[in-house]
Amino acid sequence: MRKYLFLLLSILVLTSLVLVGCAPTPTEPPPPTDTPVPTKAPEPTDTPVPTEAPEEGPPDLTGETIRIYGLIDFSGPFAASTAPMAQGTTDIVDYYNAIGGIFGAQIEMVFEDTGGKVDEAVAIYNRFTGEDDNIVMILLFTSADEEALRDRVKEDKIPTMGMAPSTTALYGVEDGWLFTAIPLYPEQLANFMDYVVANWDSIKPAGAGDEIKLAHLSWPGAFGQASLTDESQAYIEALGVEIVANEQYEMSPTADTTTAILNAQAAGANVIWTNTLAHGPAVLLNDLHELGLRDQFVVGGCFLTMDFPTYAFLADPSYGEGFYAAFPYAWWSETDNPAIQTALEIAEKNERGPEALILGRLIVQSGLDVARHAIEQAILDVGFENLNGEAVYNALTQIQDYEVMGGLTTVDFTNGIRASRISQIRQIQGGPGQFVIIQDFTELPDLRPRP
């Protein structure tokens, strides 16, 4: 029995030894190998690099219409100058429409005849605003109409482009809604007197002394008296110039200016300024020659006095010789000017003869160009669906150093300005249309009325 137990025990021991021998012998773990740092997978070569989204271009308004209204004298006392301006307005509107209008929208021009009567202008304005509750632009052509409607256009939020820049209309109400691409008449007068004072020794009449004495001979009413304001009088007096007369004469092609001239002479005047147009400067020059007094005065006027229609009323074309004007535009003879090239192209397309190349066309085409520019900017600012008078007004007040029609003049409506602020001095030398620059564009004195 013990023999079997010993044998069994021996077998168990041997088995244990075999199992122990078969087990792996423990060893130290191997040292860690360098683990590579993970890297970003490369971008697929066919994936385009992201770029900024292209800017959105102007809208396509093809099929739309933008209406501009105009109150103009076709049959009253200003018709000789303003009626041709309507033709110039229509021509430039047609031109703009032919080249795409305003982002494709066509401009529709709506004119009504005021007959030169303020009451009629107000009635027409009431009808326009009653029929259209979203007017984006109105054109006004006389100082009296501008003054009568200055508060209304602000109240109704209708931006307005004026063709006769009355100081009262432009600055008589704070943050007014009336603008013009023409300098103020008092600033034109101040510009002229600056020139006279600076050049008195070379331009003064024979026998005149060192003292410069000014006579203001003009029409009655808002336009005729627009140049003589408190600000312009103070400015002129500060130059050392005495204003010795303010005479008025009838607004008629047959007006007799003899009394006004003789009163100016009696007061010792040696310089005359007239704020008139067409027959206004003509009857004055006619009577100066008739009286034999033309050589006793330096005679000048606002820019409207220097125009072809004046010659229709001169008894002799030579009577215009030597006349001065403050002049804010390029002129038709300057064919290297881009704005004049465009104006001539417009006239040719509409088969207008030489008689159509007057100052009035340049006035309205400058006004329409500024209006179109402002409407375009308003559309870019708020979208066509939100276009209204307020958006156009905001665009107008942001216009800065804008070259009208590419070079006719320059306007800047920032900082509360409502009128052009630059002008030349021109003189008639050699007959109709010979309006020679004797002082190039300069910045005008700031004669806006202060509150």
Descriptive report:
The protein has 451 residues and is an alpha/beta fold. The chain has two domains: 208 residues, Rossmann fold (3-Layer(aba) Sandwich), CATH 3.40.50; 149 residues, 3-Layer(aba) Sandwich (Rossmann fold). The chain is built from 15 helices and 14 strands. The strands form three sheets. A seven-stranded mixed sheet has the order 7-6-8-9-10-13-14, sandwiched between helices.
Short summary of the structure?
By secondary structure, the chain is α/β, with parallel strands linked by helices. The chain contains 15 helices and 14 strands. It folds into 2 domains: 65-183 and 332-420, 3-Layer(aba) Sandwich (Rossmann fold); 186-327 and 437-443, Rossmann fold (3-Layer(aba) Sandwich), CATH 3.40.50.2300.
